[in-house]
Amino acid sequence: MVSTSGRKLSQILRYATLMLALSLTATPSLAQDFGAQANRDPFLGVNQVVFGFNEYFDNLVLLPLAVGYSNYVPSPVQTGVTNFFGNIDDLNTMANNLLQWKIPEAVSDCGRILINTTVGIGGLIDVASELGLEKHNEDFGQTLGVWGVESGPYVVLPIFGASSTRDALGLFVDSLLNPIYQIDDEAARVTTFGAERLEWRTGLLPAESLITGDRYLFLREASFQQREFEINDGELDDPFGDF
């Protein structure tokens, strides 16, 4: 079963596929739009080096582990792990909804945390969703975008991948609120972070088949579209409709 976030990612990747294809043959205005996206990558040389490292690490470690995890770990266990990390993420989401003055969403996030942490056994069971409390996804990069801060140049971060100067700052601020980074024991902290990255990578597996052509260019374009999608609360400027 593909999660809601997985379906959103698939939509974004399909859109990126079409944009990349049409940028080669379509009208000048569309080609210029795509060129403007490319101009947001002034650190191309460095980004490609980091991207190459990430790809090597992914192919050597993360991807095989994610495939094994997806194929051999029982679905209920995978669901519990996803719910656990989702419950942790709700803390950050609540804070950013407050900063964006989305009070009803922040109240809902607070309810989710309280219910899932207690009744849901530390977040392993997503009881809140069953009760109608919708899960939201917000981070400080989105908050800065809502406040009007431009994304800035495209950057590729080690391990974390596609980002921008704005979102890299947001990632740093978010880490201050993330309980994983506050674990005192270094081995436990690294293990928990690794488990979170593995769960994240597993969630991307269904979208792998949608990536075509030059992976660097494709994922760069997809990252632009994803952030636009998230900052606008799911509204993607897609003139081509659902294809």
Structure, explained:
The chain is globular. It has helices spanning 4-22, 28-38, 44-72, 75-99, 103-118, 127-130, 140-146, 165-177, 186-204, 215-231; strands at 154-157, 161-164. The model is unreliable at 1-8 and 10-31 (pLDDT under 50). It has a two-stranded antiparallel ribbon with strand order 1-2. By secondary structure, it is mostly helical. Helix 3 (44-72) crosses helix 9.
Secondary-structure topology with pairs:
Layout lengths: L3 H19 L5 H11 L5 H29 L2 H25 L3 H16 L8 H4 L9 H7 L7 E4 L3 E4 H13 L8 H19 L10 H17 L12
Antiparallel strand pairs: 1-2
What is the H/E order? Answer: HHHHHHHEEHHH
The total of helices stands at: 10
The oligomerization state is single chain
The structural class is mainly alpha
Main beta sheet strand tally, sense and closure: 2 strands, antiparallel
Query: What's the alpha carbon Rg, rounded to whole Å?
Result: 18 Å
Percentage beta strand: under 5%
Can you give the helix content as a percent range? 55-70%
